[in-house]
Amino acid sequence: MECIGNNVYCGHTPWYQFGMQSTFGGQLVAQAMMAAGNTLEGAHSDKLVNSVHAYFVQAGSLGKDITYEVDRIRDGNNYSTRSVTAKQDGTKLFSCLVSFQREQEGPMQHQTDLPEDAPTAESLVLNEYTRVRAL
Questions:
Q1: What tens digit of pLDDT does each residue of 56-83 get?
Q2: Are 32 and 24 in contact (CB under 8 A)?
Q3: Residues whose CB is less than 8 angstroms from the CB of residue 100 and which lie 6 or more positions away in sequence, other chains included
Q4: Strands 48-56 and 66-75: what pairing?
């Protein structure tokens, strides 16, 4: 990601992506998140991505740069929010809302511990059903 202006970044797109005919959506999401994260400054730079809501509007062309415009919606004490619009040749390809949160200690935990008697992955046996699905 290259900063090309105030809250504006340029993402490069390779001319070839594994036989695809248009820009890979994961690349748009990743570059948009990088652009949004690059706008977190000072006391907000330690925040981590909390959620992403992404909307794919139109396919992009391979080999052409993509411009990411970041709108700094809010910088609060614990949360920051960014809106990112990706454009190629002036045409909107993608938009997303990225929320960042400062890591916090607290009594809430949404994940339970793995049971002590849970089988290891190596001990599980493949059967014909799982073998066919893996192919």
A1: 999 998 889 999 999 999 999 999 999 9
A2: no
A3: 36, 37, 40, 44, 47, 48, 49, 50, 79, 80, 81, 82
A4: unpaired
| Residue (of 104, 91, 89) closest to 47 by Cα position | 104
**Residue 126 burial by CB count (10 A; 0-12/13-18/19+): exposed, middle or buried?**
exposed
State which residues of the chain have pLDDT below 70.
Answer: 16-19, 107-109, 126-135
pTM comes to: 0.75
Cα torsion through 31, 35, 36, 40, rounded to 10: 140
Token pair in block for residue 135: 């192919």
Tokens for 5?
A: 């202006």
Tokens of 30: 């990743």
